[in-house]
Amino acid sequence: MLKFDKEQFLKFVGEEGLSKRGEIERIVDEISDKGYKNIFLIGSGGTIAMMYPYEYMLKSTSTIEVHAEIAAELLVMNNRHLSKDSVCVFASVTGTTKETVAAAEFCKEKGATTIGLVALPDTPLANAVDYCISTGHEKHSFDTFFLHLQLLTFRFIHNQNEFPQYEQFANELAFLPEGMVQAMEKFDSRAEQFATHHKDTGYHMLVGAGNLWGNTYSYAMCILEEMQWIKSKSIHAAEFFHGTLELVEDDTSVIIFKGEDETRPLAERVERFAKKITNELLILDTKDYELPGISEEFRKYVAVNVNWALTGRISVYLERERDHSLDIRRYYRKMDY
Prior knowledge:
There is one protein chain. The protein is built from 12 helices and 9 strands. It is α/β, with parallel strands linked by helices. It folds into 2 domains: 6-164, 3-Layer(aba) Sandwich (Rossmann fold), CATH 3.40.50.10490; 174-322, Rossmann fold. The longest helix has 24 residues, at 299-322.
């Protein structure tokens, strides 16, 4: 597969990523023993999008009070739920995202307990938080962050006596990286065909819900817009029929992310409509991929990982077909704004 090293992926995401399980469990257990009132999931751009699935999982699986907040907005909104009894979780690959670092410092000043997910230690975010969980490298950071957030989230829920399956779930995560590789291998030719067909397409609609809403938002904004300069719109499946449907024509590219949680019927409703109108419909359905070692009851929780892996295959082929590096930026970190 183009720009993919299977052994590297399994080493960095599977072996090294999951080696943090004990550290993450110790952190969560210490915080749980001390007590807390609520959890804040905080990020900027791609990292706040990364938090949305775990906000959904907490809301749909637990009674723990949770808030997903954009870092820059949190700094100015005077959120009355944020206090010394809050647990605040941040993520930044580089550890230098200024809004996220400022939010971590702000929350710490409030007396909140802070946890940071970073690629590299000894970076501003890593140094600003009470607990730092580092991947140790920038390879496959988001894939690893997803696993770390799953361990973190479900350990909190387990300690709330609301997820007795935690040990089984955490053990089964060891099988997930290999399952993701198999899914990517199965999807790869479709990803290449999509990129070849759409190399000159100027606008895409992306639709998702539930555990996959964050990926929908992130892929539209961070990949298509930021990294490929392609106009796109992320639409929540539950809101699609309250405006956006009127813009669909027979040549409109519509991409639907279908997961396996309770919101799947919302995506299926959009799919039924889109099939009647457009000839340019792509469905990314995690149900199409076997995940050996993952129990049926846990598939909905790992759909976010699988979906992210699949979209990554589209990205590298768009990069090639459009002759547009995913690393090129015109304005981001290139000028003051």
